[in-house]
Amino acid sequence: MQHKTIIEPFRIKSVEPISVSTEAERTQYLKDAHYNPFLLRSDNVVIDFMTDSGTSAMSAKQWAGMMEGDEAYAGSRSWLRMEAEVRDLTGMPHILPTHQGRAAERIIYGHLGGPGKIFISNTHFDTTRANIEFSGATAIDIPIAENKDTALQHPFKGNMDVGELDRLLKEHKGNVGAVILTVTNNSGGGQPVSLANAEGVSAICKLHGVLFLLDCCRISENSWFIKHRENGMEELSYREIAQRMFALTDGAVMSAKKDALVNMGGFLALKDEALAEACINLLIITEGFATYGGLAGRDMEAIAIGLREIFDPSYLDYRIKSTLFLGKKLHELGVPLMLPIGGHAVYVDAKKLHPHIPPHAYPGQALVGELYILGGIRTVEIGSVMFGTYNADGTLKPAPMELVRLAIPRRVYTQSHIEYVIETFAEIMKRCEQVRGLRITKEPKFLRHFTAHFEPLK
Ligand code: F0G
Questions:
Q1: Phi, psi of 377, rounded to the nearest 5 degrees
Q2: Domain boundaries, position 47
Q3: CB 304 within 8 A of CB 85
Q4: What angle do CA 329, 144, 354 make, to 5 degrees?
Q5: Are 65 and 150 contained in the same domain?
Q6: Would you state the pLDDT for residue 222?
Q7: Contact between residue 153 and residue 339 where contact means Cβ atoms under 8 Å apart
Q8: Claim to verify: residue 195 and residue 316 sit in the same structural domain
Q9: What pLDDT is stored for residue 157 in this prediction?
């Protein structure tokens, strides 16, 4: 028999209590946090959909592996195990361990960047953009045009605009630091990228002699979409699909906190020896020696094991279908969403949900507050709070989209948690017209969404 019910393909062996608060308490907690979910205490959160990063539940095998961790400063057995796994997966000879994705980003983009340099991506993630801009370089996003229309169905809405890439590489000849393909396209709605698109990007980069890097932190989730949506891919395993994608590139940056199922870790994988040597020098200065890069031996053990588990077909099927289940139910309630539903998260189109709130009053941030007060659900705005900039006259230059992301931690929440979120949205839909926007009262220069303070508009 073909079951319709998606079951979690695991039993729960260890549990962590959730403290359930009241709406009145949460109203106060949110005020105390200046209406910024990053400033809430996690003890005051019921369902934490802020991120899928570093929030995975590790398997019994990974926990057992932690006890095997070799904490030697140099030549650790755990490092050799992780290095072998990453080499086997990526096909790259040079592997640098880092404590998380952005450490790898700082090293490679700090080295390749600098004033006058250009980086081009389907969409740079916020830390990627920040590391590039911090070096003095410019980051340009060129997702395909379909990506901007949240309601439009497209099997690979995370793709890069290959024609535009060719044009930009001609225009900026000699000044391009790298082309970065982010899979799945997180800031662009968690949408997948096809193998055909990666092939197109690879061919153009080769033609122009430009470095092509993969931001591969959700590579196995991306492989699920390729297997089920791209012609001729059905027979390949998820891992083989990932390996084909790596083979097209010159290197990869990974935050292991996503698709390696660990709470901390990352790596940089490179084909070119000279580039790897330059990066290893930077790694040793700020992260740690080349055989641990800021990670404990036990973390490296867990990464090596997680990188195998993540390609397990029953896990991946549950993962993508359970995200889809939440998306489908919200869609049925009439919640405007980024369609089709991506792999790690459901994205609400707050511009459509709150048409009465203009971008400079942050419609996404308003929804983030509502979800927290009504259900204790913590989410994150991916819109003008995260990506908005200011014009010369001080007015806001809004982000292209006003999204709110419900990112689902891997192997953590069960069906009943998801049902609770759906019930909260039913209430959100009843009162969305009365919701007020916010204004920013304090903000830093870079990555302002992490620490900005807000206040509701009267
Ligand atoms: N690239 C992408 C596509 C990411 O989603 C992230 C992190 C990073 C790089 C940086 O990795 O956090 O290990 O330093 N994304 C998290 C998120 C924070 O919530 O989406 P990191």
A1: -90, 120
A2: 23-52+312-456
A3: yes
A4: 45
A5: yes
A6: 98
A7: yes
A8: no
A9: 96
Query: Is 126 a pocket residue for ligand 1 (Cβ < 6 Å)?
Result: no
Successive 10-residue mean pLDDT values, the chain, 458 residues: 91 94 98 98 98 98 97 98 98 98 98 98 94 97 93 96 98 98 89 98 98 98 98 97 98 98 98 98 97 98 98 97 97 96 96 97 98 98 93 92 96 96 98 95 90 96
282 plus 380 within the same structural domain: no
**How many domains does the structure of the chain reveal?**
2
Q: CA 150 to CA 339: how far, in whole Å? A: 6
| Tokens, residue 135 | 């070096």
**pLDDT for position 2:** 87
Q: Is 197 in the pocket of ligand 1 (CB under 6 A)?
A: no
Q: Is residue 223 part of a domain?
A: yes
- 187 alpha carbon to ligand 1 midpoint, in Å? 10
Cis (ω within 30 of 0) for the bond into 98?
Answer: no
Ligand 1 in reach of 59 Cβ (< 6 A)? no
Taking the centre of ligand 1 as the mean of its atom positions, its distance from the CA of residue 237, in whole angstroms, is 25
Question: What residue's CA is closest to ligand 1, atom 2?
Answer: 125
Query: Is the distance from the beta carbon of residue 100 to the nearest atom of ligand 1 less than 6 Å?
Result: yes
Burial of 77 (C-beta count, 10 Å sphere; 0-12/13-18/19+):
middle
Q: How far is the CA of 41 from the centre of ligand 1 (A)?
A: 21
Q: 176-206 as b/e, with b when 16 or more CB fall inside 10 Å? A: bbbbbbbbbbbbbbbbbbbbbbbebbbebbe
CB of residue 121 inside a 6 A radius of ligand 1: no
Query: What does the chain come to in residues?
Result: 458
Question: Do 240 and 112 fall within a single domain?
Answer: yes
Q: Which atom of ligand 1 is nearest to the CA of 51?
A: 19
Q: State the CATH number of the domain containing residue 251.
A: 3.40.640.10
Pocket test for ligand 1, best of 129, 255, 267, 403 (most atoms within 8 A of CB): 255
Q: Which atom of ligand 1 is nearest to the CA of 182?
A: 3
Supply angle C-alpha 367, 369, 375, rounded to 5. 95
Q: Please, what sign has the CA dihedral across residues 194, 195, 200, 204?
A: positive
Least Cα distance to 213 among 103, 342, 112, 144 occurs for 112
Question: 102 C-alpha to center of ligand 1: Å?
Answer: 7
Residue type, 147: N
Query: d(Cα 150, Cα 331) in Å, to the nearest integer?
Result: 13
In testing the pocket of ligand 1, which one of 50, 51, 53 has its CB within 8 Å of the most ligand atoms? 53
For the stretch 30-65, what's the b/e string if a residue is b when 16 or more beta carbons lie within 10 angstroms of its beta carbon?
beebbbbbebbeeebbbbbbbbbbebbbbbeebbeb
